[in-house]
Design goal:
The complex is a heterodimer of chains A (299) and B (515). With 299 residues, chain A is mainly alpha-helical. Helices cover 77% and strands 1% of the residues of chain A. Chain A contains 14 helices and two strands. A two-stranded antiparallel sheet of chain A has the order 1-2. The relative contact order of chain A is 0.20. In chain B, helix 12 runs parallel beside helix 13. The termini of chain B are far apart. Classes of the chains: A mainly alpha (299), B alpha/beta (515).
Chain lengths: 299, 515
Amino acid sequence: MDTVSSLIFSAVTIMTPLLLAATGGLYTELTGMLNIGIEGLMLLGAFSSVVSLHFTHNIVLAILIGTGSSMLLAAVIASITLYLKANVFITGLAANLFASGITTVLSFHIFANKGVVTFPELPQMPVLFERGTEAVPVLGPLLFGHTFFTYLSFILLFLSYVVLYRTPFGFRLRATGLYPKSLISVGLSPKRYQFIAFLISGFFSAVAGAMLSVNLGAFVPNITAGKGWVALVVIFLGQKRPVGLLIASFIFGISEAFSNYAQGIWHIPSDFILAIPYIFTLVAIVFYSIYDYNRQKVE
Amino acid sequence: MFPIVQMHSIVKVYPYTLLKANDHVDLTLNEREILSLAGENGAGKTTLMKILYGMEEFDEGMIEVDGKKVNISSPLDAARLGIGMVQQHVTLVDEFTVAQNVVLGKENTVHHLLYDERKNSSKVATLIEENHFSVEPDALVGSLSVGEKQQVEILKMLYRDVRVLILDEPTAVLTSQEIDALFSTLRSLQSKGVSIILITHKLHEILEISDRVAIMRQGAMIGTYETSLVDEQSIGRMMMGETAAVPAKILTSIDSDRIVLSVDHVSIERHNQKQPLLDDIHFDLFRGEILGCTGISGNGLGQLESVLLGELPISKGKIFYHDTILSSEHKRARTREIGLPFVPSDRLYTGSSLTAPVSENMIATSREKFFPPFGIRKRKIQAYTRQLISRYKIKSEPYQAIGTLSGGNIQKVILAREIEKVKDVIICCEPTWGLDASSASFIHEQIIKLRNSGIGVLLLSSNLDEIISLSDRLLIFSRGAVVARFGVGEVSTMTKESLGPFLLGKAVRVKRGKM
């Protein structure tokens, strides 16, 4: 593969967990809740799915256990936030700290290892449409030869668009964030929709986390490495629209892929190169804000 | 006439203030009738209706619908019983279309799954047509006028097949054409079998639209009357009520050279509306007098308070304190900035900070005395508060949150705080509203004491007994204008009955020249 193709290819691999987590976070964001617990939900999902895959050797069961545990944690955040009226920022932070603690403790308990736990017996995740990658320029690496997680992320994004914009549930969920009194006035509970949104966010975060650990065939402490936070940025950069999420997560993917590539080629401090994705995001946000400001001025 | 809704002996007490919003209130709504629920602000009308709609819990009492005892604990329960309420504030999503807002929570779907844009839109279109509304089903709600938004709120309820429709002050924000349209809608709904409760305090609207009128005052139900058997005066009197006797006045003449406050041809115009909110208000306040201003709610007294408090900019005219300009065209009055004492009518939110201690509330408008360049003089604040607490007979401790006090004691704290700052003028708005007789007469004594020591008191009050017994001179507001002026010696000859025609704007008495 040439440089451009391999850059695009790895950009898609990098963007997949971001897109998944951001799609889930879109639900909570649209109900007006800032879900900063995504990072912790991803981490717990990553740990529990790869460990259960190790024990069951059944990828479907593994993902069910992974998503189940993250949704349980999401339900706890949501209950404390919505019904006991704790600050959503604090409960989200608590979930992140809890996830990072519990995965280390359990990993030590089960594998007597606080560091990297590898599962060499796990098979490589199969890639789909492998032959298409090199056959078509640009679109090939973009669309073909990825694991099923990538295709799942595209399908779930499309499904989420349908759910959010084309179903009664979606209308009520968005009304919750836009003007909760509209639901109260007809006897619906905004909290119920916020709770469901948290569960959905837990599900998506877990799938995103599972991709990280299962693809690697190992659990590394703190394997999510801030991806949950980046997913939040993706939501805002993507203007809280499904298509926006796709574009924003690709921007992140391509800039991180570029920074990985540049590390081996350029002789400039690696700290700077590793900062490229973030600098890129900052520039993108600034340009977008200027564009948005001008557009509003015209209106 | 068959009763559709009956509320029996409803009691609702708000925590903190222990204000009895509803005190053993009974209400009956008959089938196919338009019932007005009338009363001054704070009489408990909205609370009673929110209880019926399941948005407020109540402490005692019972509700029957169709003669059966029901339990209404949420708007969903109310909707199941066919009861709908159009709130005073909009409950619509600006980003959604009219149809999307109307069907929210009860959407038509394709295969129980997808939102059916076409069917929802056409159902709402039919509903719009049946009721002769003017909105488009696919218009974004954010682009609608206030009147149109209200149509959407009513549609939202009609879509749910309500038999009982409650409207909370629906005319407050409407133009007169919009009010006419609303009333014809209500009449056609009535003819289709809907029973309607209209919360309002506008007397002419009550007579125009309703079959019966229920009148509330200070949390209690005064009575329900056939509208054909009452007139505006008797309704107005029942809404305002009688209060305890107050001390007689002493002053008989005014030192007219000593103007402290001067309101000079002040008007507030509204966008696209002929009738201004305040119409060429013009008066002077002298030292050593109590100048009373009164009127029925919604006739300009509230706007005058907002103007003097600096909440509302004026469109025309000027306001002076001695030679200082407090306000001029398109500006907000600087009353608070220059520190003029002011007792606002809203003692709970404007007048105090409910969760802050009494001591902090006590110094809120004279902080500079207690804040040296560094730090806060806590001990001095405590001592100062204790001194005022005993002088004004306030039942509290300095560290108590003011929200835990009774209404009378909260008002005494505010009065004490403002009186301590008095130089030569004080503005008091509804100073005894909702208070028990002893707190009220204590506050009246304080006001008279101020006047006797040569202070100019501007008293805005809708309590006629208070206004007649305290005022040296009196201005009467109707539809935003001063329609009558009474000078020294004239007020004491007035009675509530003789003021009636002026309050209703049916008689005018304006002397030539500046009074």
